[in-house]
Amino acid sequence: MKKLCVALALVGTTLALAGTAAANLSVGVNDDAAKDAAVSAWFYSTMQSVGLKINTLTLLWDEGAPTEIAGAAAIDQAIAKAKTNGVTIELDLYPMHSMAFTGGTRCAPSSDPDACGDTAKIQQFASWSASVAKRFPSVNQFVVMNECNQPRFVNPQWDSSGNNQSAAICGRALMAAYDAIKAVSSSSFIWGVGLSPRGNDKPNAASNSSTKPVSFLEALGKWYRAEVAKGRTDGFMNGFDFHPYPVPQTQPFAQGYSDVKQASITNLSRIYEAFYGAFNGTPQKTIGQQAGGGLPVSLNETGIQTESSGKSGYSGTEVSANSAGGVTGSSATEAYQASWYKQMLDLLSCDPNIQFVNIFHLIDEADLAGWQSGMYFADHSAKQSAQTVRDWIAQSGGNCTGTVHPWTPAGVAAAVTTTTKAKPKPKAKPKAHVKAKPNANAKAKNKTTTTSKSTPASKHK
Fold this sequence. Notes:
Elements: H1 4-9, E1 14-15, E2 26-30, H2 37-50, E3 54-61, H3 72-84, E4 88-95, H4 119-135, E5 141-144, H5 166-184, E6 189-195, H6 213-229, E7 239-242, H7 268-279, E8 297-302, H8 334-348, E9 354-359, H9 384-396, E10 407-408
Parallel strand pairs: 2-3, 2-9, 3-4, 4-5, 5-6, 6-7, 7-8, 8-9
Antiparallel strand pairs: 1-10
Helix pairs in contact: 2-3, 4-5, 5-6, 6-7, 8-9
């Protein structure tokens, strides 16, 4: 992709031109299908053949069984097969139920950053996160919380006065888990938030009352500054995680979201700017090449769905074949997906803030109510994007083949010594455990709003 698109995407920032980068982008997938022992051997050998380096697996915390690590044996076998094929495992930790920390309550406004949310349950979640770190000692990377700006994952989003409360609740859970995991191993690397790319900022919306990502970061920064005023002297994430899905996927790649408070791949500077505004001058490192910057960014979920007509292995009805989802016509073809993934990799490899990008999934979900954004169809046959991604990795090695585009906030000088790409080292191999075959596409039971990542609400992120 021509680097002109990068310039268009980084409006309102200061860009410093640099030379070619060396292997600054790793590519992986986010896919629970590998929990199935019947699939995992094919899954990880296929990842290796494509050149994919990381897979994120989800572990859900159930407040009804707060100490249980459900599906641990499935994770064990996935870790073992991943290691054999040179793939790193990252674990994504968040509550199974959207009201786990809220009880469905809109909090009263308060200047106390710890006033909103169930403190006992937040501490239980943190203790569980620490037990996960102990249970899987070879896992060094954890994403804590997921799309907290969406009611599917934190509900309600708003307090009784109509101000955002999900950021404070999410921040409290992330901070508590960060401290608990670090107490197990200080070398563990914690990615924070897993922010959704969109929202509506409508507290009184009849449905899907959500928070735009820029608005969410503003609220998260306000909460954290109040925690610092109470004595917090440490940050609460080692890296920032964002999910830049294009919704609908018909939106032009170079344009992304027209709303400046939402962001896709080409609008990442909006997120960098909002993060800087939220945390500049605090103990929390910021994104960018300025003094106090260098926080790495992961894009742990993004993808373009393809239609599956004539392919075996699918069931149900495609629910995103409409203007809201954009999985229609020329925007749902294999060629469109492959082109989008290639443009994405070209652009991200020249952004020194991005450590890795994970495509949401390696293999399509068989249920058409789920996601068909994998590089392989449900029957394991390859889409065009599998070869496209393989070729890109083989030819570039993850390097920027054009011009590197660092980012600094408008009017702020770059700091040459800033290092963004510090990567955590893997730990020792864990002891073997009994293997079990789970159902990789099972939906989580929900007391309120289901939060199973395998079948997102209406499929729209």
